[in-house]
Amino acid sequence: MEGGNSLNLQLQQLPLATAAVSVQSHADSFSYKENLIGALLAIFGHLVISIALNLQKYSHIRLAGSKDPRAYFKTKTWWCGLFLLVLGELGVFSSYAFAPLSLIVPLSAVSVIASAIIGIIFIKEKWKPKDFLRRYVLSFVGCGLAIVGTYLLITFGPNSHEKMTGENITRHLVSWPFLLYMLVEIIIFCLLLYFYKEKNANYIVVILLLVALLGSMTVVTVKAVAGMIVVSIQGNLQLDYPIFYIMLVCMIATAIFQATFLAQASQLYDSSQIASIGYILSTTVAITAGATFYLDFTGEDVLHICMFALGCLIAFLGVFLITRNRKKSVPFEPYISMDAMPGMQNMHDKGIAVQPDLKASFSYGALENNDNMPEIYTPATLPIVQEQHGSKGVSAPPYRVLEHSKKE
């Protein structure tokens, strides 16, 4: 009898265990489906943004090279680019509501890949095959590496999915890991801002680290706002929570300050350097913020985390190779400007501009190399007039001409 009862008990427990396994597999497949939806929305958004920016750039270049008196905002091409830009931003914004933050942020490499491909396809100059491969081999290798890294990111990305409700976001906001992370980030941000403003540390790493720290808060708030909007559309209204408006204000404020620092960096450094270094720093800091605030990697095994990190490194290398091959823009400088003369009033700045020393790394006119500048500007050697002390009839000259050598 005892054997029969134990057999019946095992038969009763078997359907329950089978149902639990099926529910778990269904939840995993659903979460992977959400990851795929979010990744596809992010890839679509970045592709459309890249096309839109290139369309607007093409509109400006075409107007600058023609005699068309119209403004850029009166052309159809510019408005088409603006429409695609808004559509792409909406796609990226909505992707944060479906997939984890740590998965969506690295996918901005798609925009760099698309820009490189568009630049190669629409090239205006004619090249020989050998020159073309020598010139663009880094771009091809970088695109391949970035695509491989993107595939690894999507395949081994974090699989944490949590409803973005007001209670969940508030609980994450007051958790001790995020509070400790915020304290460290605020201290680092204040130190960098002090060195940047007071000590004139205009290094590209300093400026882009400020951008990355602000950007991490931007993506954290974007995911909260987008997730709460999607949950509200599904029927559970979240717009009456004060945390929604707090996140909305933080999102707008950090985005504005981030754009300000990016504009200052673009005035000092080349756009290719900003694209590569900014992508690496912003992605690293944003993944750290997402893992701290939303606990993206909770429950993930070591293999998935290592493969995800490998995908990030490969994507970083690909973006670096793509941006390394871009031409650096050389601004046009006149041959000689009036404010380069000693004591001449500067027309651009309100002050006296003094001509710099010849030993400095400045170039005037068509002189690209200053190595031979002392030889060019060496004073002419004049004959020496000796003083005659013994002759009374010959008077000494009122001045004395000395010989200048190149060493002096």
Task: Give me the secondary-structure topology.
Elements: H1 2-64, H2 76-95, H3 101-104, H4 109-121, H5 129-155, H6 166-173, H7 176-197, H8 204-233, H9 242-268, H10 271-293, H11 302-324, E1 344-345, E2 352-353, H12 373-376
Antiparallel strand pairs: 1-2
Structure commentary:
β1 and β2 form a beta hairpin. α5 runs antiparallel to α11 (302-324). Residues 9-27, 329-341, 343-378, 387-394 and 404-408 have low confidence and may be disordered. It contains twelve helices and two strands. By secondary structure, it is mainly alpha-helical. A two-stranded antiparallel ribbon has the order 1-2. The protein has helices at 2-64, 76-95, 101-104, 109-121, 129-155, 166-173, 176-197, 204-233, 242-268, 271-293, 302-324, 373-376, and strands at 344-345, 352-353.
Question: Which features does this protein show?
Answer:
mainly alpha; 12 helices; disordered C terminus; globular; about 400 residues
The secondary-structure element order is: HHHHHHHHHHHEEH
Number of strands: 2
How would a crystallographer describe the biggest sheet? 2 strands, antiparallel
Radius of gyration: 32 Å
Q: Spans of 5+ residues with little confidence (pLDDT < 50)?
A: 9-27, 329-341, 343-378, 387-394, 404-408
Rounded average pLDDT? 75
Terminal CA distance: 116 Å
Shape: globular
Strand content: under 5%
Helicity level: 55-70%
Give the helix tally. 12
Q: Which class best fits the helix and strand makeup? A: mainly alpha
**Major beta sheet, strand line-up:** 1-2
Protein name: NPAL3 protein
Transmembrane segments: 36-56, 77-97, 103-123, 135-154, 174-196, 203-231, 243-262, 274-295, 301-322
Organism: Chunga burmeisteri (Black-legged seriema)
GO molecular function, one term: magnesium ion transmembrane transporter activity
